[in-house]
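Review form for a predicted model. The reviewer records the input and the model, then writes brief findings.
Reviewer: anonymous (R2)
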Amino acid sequence: MPDAVKGTWVQIHRVVLKSEERSPHLPDDTKKVPLELRLKGFLTHDACIGDEVEIETLIGRRVKGRLVKVNPEYDHGFGRPVPELLTIGMELRKILGGDGR
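Model under review:
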């Protein structure tokens, strides 16, 4: 039984360039590691985790890679709040003549 069926939102992984294929002009710590791709899209056929698959991205690109997640979550953030920026909207409204809310 497949982990995901055709049309499921998934994430794939692929090594784009091995470390020895990377440009010699990169910093040493960057040259030592492969260039990797993680991409989300809709699965074009049924598959199990670890299978080589093809996905179609939201903009219609078809990309191949190893299936690593089914229904992957978004887990990025913008870091900690900057206290100086939290009140800037209210301060600007006061300056422009609003009530500051």
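Findings: The chain has a mean pLDDT of 93.
Further findings: The chain is about 15% helix and 30% strand.
Recommendation: see findings above.
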